[in-house]
């Protein structure tokens, strides 16, 4: 059992993943992965017409999109936005 798991983990470090390997890598279902490819949200390749392949770099780029800021970063950005918008307005009419 452990040997099979090790082999599967090693396969996830290949430069190109099959759709099934990508699903394991991203921890998503195959149905959702097909939706991502058909909607154009995930870049993929079909060199032989049927099987779907995903470059590991594309998989990482997909998973790393839409980062969530830490709470302190959000407060700092909001404060800067408020100060900049207040300074940009002309209060003397």
Could you characterize the architecture of this molecule?
5% of the residues are buried. With 93 residues, the chain is mainly α. The protein is built from 5 helices and 2 strands; from the N terminus they run αβααβαα. It has a two-stranded antiparallel ribbon. It has helices at residues 2-11, 19-26, 30-38, 56-63, 71-88; strands at 16-18, 53-55. The longest helix has 18 residues, at 71-88.
Short summary:
The chain has 5 helices and 2 strands; from the N terminus they run αβααβαα. The chain is mainly alpha-helical and 93 residues long. The protein has one domain: Multidrug-efflux Transporter Regulator, Chain: A, Domain 2, CATH 1.10.1660.
Name the descriptors.
mainly alpha; 6% strand; elongated; 93 residues; 5 helices; two-stranded antiparallel sheet
Topology, element by element:
Blueprint: H1 2-11, E1 16-18, H2 19-26, H3 30-38, E2 53-55, H4 56-63, H5 71-88
Antiparallel strand pairs: 1-2
